What we know:
414 residues; alpha+beta; 17 helices
Amino acid sequence: MIFSAFERMVAMRYLRARRQEGFISVIAGFSLLGIALGVATLIIVMSVMNGFRAELLGRVLGVNGHAYVYAPIGLLEDYQPLADRLRGAQGVVAVMPYVEGQALVSIQGIATGVQVRGIKPEDFRTRPVVGDSVVLGDEAEFGPGGIAIGVRLAQRFGLRVGDELSLISPRGATTAFGTVPRTGSFRIAAIFEVGMSEYDSNIVYMPLDTAQTFYRMPGQVTALEVFFADPNDIGRLRATLANAVAGQGRVLDWQQTNSSFFTALQVERNVMFLILSLIIMVAAFNIISSMIMLVKDKGRDIAILRTMGATRGMVMRIFLLSGASIGVIGTVAGFVLGVVFCENIEAIRQGIQTLTGTDLFNAEIYFLSQLPAKIDWVEVGQVVGMALALSFGATLYPSWRAARLDPVEALRYE
Length: 414
């Protein structure tokens, strides 16, 4: 073993300070607590950031396509041959034509704009994030005359399944008096809850044929939505999709359409990692200060050990073990605390909200209805490794100073 039984015994004895040395023990305790809180905080924050990214990516790519194929100019016409060709491309699992447009909902003097998406009824039911999130009504009723709206839009206007919803389209008929907006009344067949406030309050799904009639787009669609088996492999699939399109359209993938959003998440994640790493660094400096005070206080003991035959290496290992023990115990405690907190983060949030009576996670601000946390064990390993490295590094200088102490000078005035 690197450390002998004698070195371990003396090192542990120094960690258990006597009453007159209690101040040094208090500093060591705060150093241990700082390491533990720093590691736990870093694990929790990074896990929440990972959870945010995973949840947002899953919902964004579930409601929206992984890639879009638009016409070079205007709308797509005679799109079926192109859709069949795309379905045969490598990695493509589904191709869905859709119509997209803006509309106005006005009920009892309250008006709001919504985004109308016209898709085939079978596509609505096979889309996992949308079809599986129907909370009221039946997705099988989504069809001619029946639409699906988000739960927050329904709550805002007090709508229920079976009610009639009037939509006003900006694409109206042109008359001698100007453009007259087109109005349509549709029965609410289903109410869905995706879990993102932006979608649950702004999106209205409509059958494709009905949307083409409502927006005066006979036989035309806005674009083709393409879904892949692995959307994270979009870099390789982008070229395959471009070859299948063969110049008959423009291709935009999810990384291009949401680049600013996910880039902002990544930048925020990196900045939070750097800022919270400072907590561990401050705790490491506390270890240095406590070890320097311990070396100064134990000068006579070091001199006696040296005169009894202890080598400089033994003295150095004694203080190295004392300081490293603080870092190791603090890191392990922080690791356990961080993992347990992440595994129960939603229950902890609900408990704090119940005690304080405040909303700690407003879905309208943070997009999601629940606080997500996804533990990346590779990242956790990096945090633990960094904490251990800083802890061991913090003990090197005080241990070196203890080993270099001259016994004669230390005992001169004793």
